[in-house]
Amino acid sequence: MSSYVFSAQSPKGFEATVQAVTEALKQEGFGVLTTIDVQATLKAKLGVEQRPYVILGACNPHFAHQALQADPDIGALLPCNVVVREDADGAVHVVLMDPQAVLGMVARPEIEPLGGEVRSRLQRVAESLGRGWSA
């Protein structure tokens, strides 16, 4: 796995995983601001068949507010993206942006603790899915 994401494999089907991830995000103080159905978009715009693939734009208002107070331009790095995708073999994966790595690009000391706390919360989301996750 790359240095800017971590992931988990879900034991559930695609739709059930999207619901489980949304609920786990809620338990950690995040809301889902956007849902991008990549499968439907590629079908509509390009006529391309794609396995189920959704990008959830997750935001924790408390931490987002703190980050915006420290650097108003940091909104370009928000929200935290969470991908739920299905492989050709039917395995469902959840891939989460690593906010510590992404916010580390800002190189501001007041942002660093936020990235670590948000990362911890998103790791708990991954762990809640029941199968092993990888950083």
Automatic annotation (TrEMBL):
DUF302 domain mapped to chain residues: 36-99
InterPro entries: DUF302, TT1751-like_sf, UCP021774
PANTHER family, A to Z: SLR5037 PROTEIN
Protein name: DUF302 domain-containing protein
Organism: Thiomonas arsenitoxydans (strain DSM 22701 / CIP 110005 / 3As)
